[in-house]
Amino acid sequence: MLKSLLKKGGLMAVLMLIFLSPTLAADTLKVGSFLSVTGPASFLGDPELKTLQLYIKKINAEGGLLGKQLELIHYDDAGDANKARTFVKRLISNDQVDLILGGTTTGTTMAAIPLVERARIPFISMAGGIEIVQPVKKWVFKTPQTDRMAAAKIMEDMVKRGINKIALISGTGGFGRSGREQTLEVAPEYGIDIVVDETYGPKDTDMTAQLTKIKNTPGVQAVLNFDFGQGPAIVTKNYRQLGIELPLYQSHGVASNSFIELAGPASEGVRIAASALLIADELPENDIQKQVLTSYKKEYEEAFKSPVSTFGAYGYDALMIAVDAIKRAETIDKAKVRDAIEQTKGYVGATGVVNMSPEDHMGLDLSAFRILEIKDGGWKLVE
Amino acid sequence: MMMAFSEFLQYLFSGVTIGATYALVGVGFAIIYNASHVINFAQGEFVMIGGMGTVFLLNLGIPIPLAILCAIVLAVLVGLALEKFAVEPARNAEVVTLIIITIGASIFLRGLAQVFWGKEFHALPSFSGDTPFVIANATILPQSLWVLGVTLAIVLALVWFFKYTLLGKAIIATSCNADAAKMMGINTQFILFIAFGLSALLGAIAGIIIAPITFTSYDVGIMLGLKGFVAAVLGGLGSAVGAIVGGLLLGIAEAMAAGYISSDYKDAVPFIIILLILFFMPSGLFGVRGTERV
Predict the structure, then answer these.
(1) Do the beta carbons of residue B82 and residue B42 sit within 8 Å?
(2) ipTM higher than 0.85?
(3) Does B10 lie at the interface with A, CB-CB under 8 angstroms?
């Protein structure tokens, strides 16, 4: 009895597989993704995943892409490059995805690159590091601005204010380290002298010692803090505690309202280089990004009841650049989709206007950054 | 000269403030170690529950004094539950097993906090404003004075507790010789229960008074727990006074290293100190080999 049941059941399963699997494969477009939804980079990965889920659902509701429904296959790498590698392997060989979006951090992205290059799958990363696209890798693209551009944008603003001697204080985490290196490299191009160069650990809770040193160094005209997370908020608080009057600059790593909440009134007057998303509602009507930013902000905040962040915008651009390319390619053939991504021109995204080329797999220029200042507890655009 | 002095004073202020928190966490380690020779690696999680609990309750609209009180009670309950449901059932196991249990508990608690309280950093408002006091050109925040004052009050209370109360004396007796204490009618299991509650209390207080300065998040306990452990070892595991001195020493060494040597090597300095001390004084600054402790 049992045996025959098993036999029947097994037969059914086999039949179902035969009938269902080809139709499934033909009707869906598999979007693979690995993001750091938990772990230290979770505040980046979490909005990225939410954004992907939100817009894939939306695209499917509107009839999908080339008549196919999108299927998101996602793994959480918790910010661990080893896990990221394993998951990318699984996406490629088990799930057989058509393209991969993801890599929240530069570390997880770099771990995935050799695999996607070998498997020849279009891959759009949401991580900042310049090494992802320099040198150019055939199948690898990225959506966020680089830390080098942030440093350049900030120095542009410093030069405008007549500042040429600055102090640098950065975290020793990956983001801060890389930011520090890029700042040191870019500074001579703007004729800026870095007279003090201080660092602190990613888990440090007091930076008054480093800031006292900066305060007592003669000739410093402004201070640049390159880091993300709670470090910059502590630096900002300590800065005011010590009564330092010099202009304080922060990188795009603090571009979210939680920075203002954490640092409180001490954050007044801080300037940062960031995407325009933070001030979407205040952008002039004729701004090229106004429409995409306000609608992304509205849709995200309605769906998740939490404020939008620039990190989610990287996810938005990754998905939309891929969708745009697939539409132009009119196929999901991997090589043709890759070519179409590389030919992206004048795509207006949430981060900036993207113009890709065979030499530039990011396609953003300094206009993707705006200089913002914190005034009355909110972000204001500096002209 | 004046400049050099105010610089030194500034380093000292930041060192003492952060050192006081290390000290409170360190004392928590010492108390549980005394009662059971277990190193409770969930100590940092009590710090987290104190800070995050207060933030959570504050967001519910509860006034801050009540929120602080409830968060402390919550931490103590978690501490007691940890002893009752995780440590006590394994009471006949090796000390190493118990230590591993506490590591597991810390991961569990951190996970719970991550799920229920979120992954963001939070700031508590300062208890009495953010206008710093200026002393000889160096500045100190009112909140730092709170940290120092509360730490001092706790140290005095602990001294009184261990010297003059029956319960305090029973804890000391248990730490000296658990078997002898048992024969004298001391319920050593109950002592351990109390010790977990007490160190959760200290951890929670540390987490709350430091949160306006350093912020708090679900994983704040990892770093503070580790530094508190170093403070406790520095002072000689099991000595409350030692943990206090160790914590202050650690905080000041860090600040001085960041100021005078290089902020890059700041974190190396405490570990060099601990290596040197363990080389030349293997039982720590205040640890006494044999039966006498605290």
Answers:
(1) yes
(2) no
(3) yes
